[in-house]
Amino acid sequence: MPRQRPLCATSLTRAPRAADTACVESRFLIGLRARAADPIVRFPVLVVLYLAAIGLTVATWLGPWYRDGAFWISEVTARSAHLLVGLLSDSLLHGRHVSYDGFTVEIIGECAGIYEVFILASCVLAYPAPMRAKALGVPFGMASIYCFNLLRILCLLLVGRHAPEFFDFFHLYFWQSTLIVLVAGVWFAWIRLFVRR
Questions:
Q1: Are residues 54 and 118 in contact, defined by beta-carbon separation less than 8 angstroms?
Q2: Which of 1, 20, 88, 167 would staple 16 via disulfide (CB 3.0–4.6 Å)?
Q3: Would you say 185 and 178 are in contact if contact means Cβ atoms under 8 Å apart?
Q4: Which tens digits make up the pLDDT trace of 54-108?
Q5: What are the residues facing 106 on neighbouring strands?
Q6: Which residues pair with 94 in a beta bridge?
């Protein structure tokens, strides 16, 4: 049986031809398509693309509304935190400032969990799931992050009042890393509750 030559074989004894270059390009494109179809490659690439799309949309087209919305969300978060702290003790509310027994925090846009919602929404949209599950996943994630954020603010008020030397550690390190774990946990819970039924 004669030895068959591969379709895209090139000879080392002759100069490369245009057909050889096209063959290498087609191999590259086939390999690229195969890698793009691989879920391990596709998911993180889509997350970054969705996150960039959300960020660019917010920054360019929704800029003024986003700033007003972040301010509004911060005020709602401050009011909710004030009501929650009020269950434990007397608290004061002045705009976005919440006071607990003399210790005051200001709730700004970064404290409201907005960026965590952007990350979670990107993960939900990038995951291969039906649109119905994705449509349920974003509000589920928003509500989960909002409730957890209120718990975080309550904890920070308690730590700031009773152990102020630990406030920076909890605010800058503990809760920031916990929010990353929370986003991953809410995403896994969404997959379990809404996608894999």
A1: yes
A2: 20
A3: no
A4: 988 887 776 676 666 677 888 888 899 888 888 887 878 888 889 888 889 988 8
A5: 97
A6: 97
Q: According to the model, what pLDDT value does residue 134 have? A: 94
One-letter amino acid at 70 equals A
Residue 183 contacts residue 116 (beta carbons within 8 Å): yes
Backbone angles phi, psi at 98, to 5 degrees: -115, 130
Helix (H, G, I), strand (E, B) or coil at 128: coil
CB atoms closer than 10 angstroms to residue 105: 19
Phi, psi of 94 (to 5 degrees): -135, 100
* Nearest by Cα to 145 from 105, 180, 107: 180
> Using CA atoms, how far apart are residues 122 and 80, in angstroms rounded to an integer?
26
List, for residues 5-26, the tens digit of each pLDDT value.
Answer: 454 555 455 555 555 555 655 6
Q: How is the chain split into domains, by residue range?
A: 40-195
